[in-house]
Amino acid sequence: MPRVLVPLASGSEELEAVTIIDLLRRAEIEVVTAGLEPGPVTCSRGTVLVPDVDLDDVVEDDFEMVILPGGQPGATHLDRDTRIHDLLARQAAADRWTAAICAAPSVFASTGLLDGRSATSFPGAVDPKRYPEIRLLEQPVVIDGKIVTSRGPGTAMDFALQLIELLLDADRRAAVEAKLMRPR
């Protein structure tokens, strides 16, 4: 099974983080949650999440995908952490997947991962004037190469299901989605 990393920062959007973690685990993908700092993480709406490990414990590990939840100030904390920038650079160099939702695509923008690519984010999270080389779209989920971006809490389920399909296959996505009782 694929192994993915979901870094959790203070102020992360809990709906996005929990949706990603839950749906990928339903697909039997190994999800490792890692706090930027030791201990529980208080999310943007006050929900407290307990990461599996501290980021320092897994920062040198290889993952099939690194997934950044959004939210503020969570995305800002992710962007200010050099370990996150190093992880993303390593993922890109190894031609492995990276994914970000809501405000977190701004981390990809600041690292240059989105240069010359199409992406989406929460409106205003990636400033088109600051990053004119990024083609910003208003789609729920955008895939460009090995980079996946999404808009926000309302697209978290679509985002997570797309990640399942990319990491496994369409059949596994369909199996997970069928049990969610989503309206068609």
UniProtKB/TrEMBL annotation:
Domain DJ-1/PfpI positions: 3-165
Residue ranges of the TM segments: none
Domain of life, source organism: Bacteria
GO cellular component terms attached to this protein's record: cytoplasm
Keyword annotations: Repeat
Pfam family, one: DJ-1_PfpI
Keyword Repeat assigned: yes
Protein source organism: Lamprobacter modestohalophilus
Gene3D superfamilies linked to this entry: 3.40.50.880
UniProt protein name: DJ-1 family protein
